[in-house]
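User: Some background: our group keeps a shared notebook of sequences we're curious about, and every so often someone picks one and asks for a predicted structure to add to the entry. Today it's my turn. The entry only has the sequence so far, pasted here. Could you supply the structure so I can complete it?
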Amino acid sequence: MTPLPPCPPVGNGFPEGYFTIKCPGSQGRVLDVRGGDVADGAEIIIYKDKTHKFRKSAQNQLFFVDKHGTLRSKASGHAVGYDSKGHRLVLRKSPHADLPKFSYCERSREVLVRLPGMEEKPYLMAALPMAAPKDTKVDVPHVVEALGYFGLSPGFPDPEKLTAHNKSCKSLVDDDEIGGEADVDDHHEKMREVRIIQKDDKSVRDRRQWEVKVIPESWAEWTESLLHV
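Assistant: Of course. Here's the predicted structure to add to the notebook entry:
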């Protein structure tokens, strides 16, 4: 088996033409623009793959790298920039200063992000999991009070004392049972958020790996024609 080439020290590692960026660790969702927006500051997310259905909205899931090495969205042509306040990737209209530099390492399947002024310390693009809401919290004082209306409260401790006791005791419910586990990803929402993390961050390990798939030029031309229908 021929070993994969090392990560290129120079260049971006992305193919020519249009491509999708898929996260296998997040049920195959691909990089997308939230709501199909084209405005400056529109958030980059991941969403279920629509490219195989030849939809107009699939244009938002196609990206390319221009001659200056800037990652861009095909739908708007805008560059992919960085919002430092939320550590998010967003669309930036050109010209725009301080755009990050993206590169893809086929060997590790990581997308490296070099922020302006911090090029020597690359970050990684990662997808965030989303846990389904689990309503397991019980308001004990209100339950006790309600039982009192039915004559069932004798023998129950005072609600205030019971609340104080609960605060002093370790929870009997594990974090993963109430959605506290950081890696739980069972929410019904089709979208997931994308963030920039430090390279030595050990979290979301399987959601920091990406697959880049080239889209045939004929397909891209076909979807382009849909925009004018």
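Suggested note for the entry: The chain has three helices and twelve strands. The mean pLDDT is 77.
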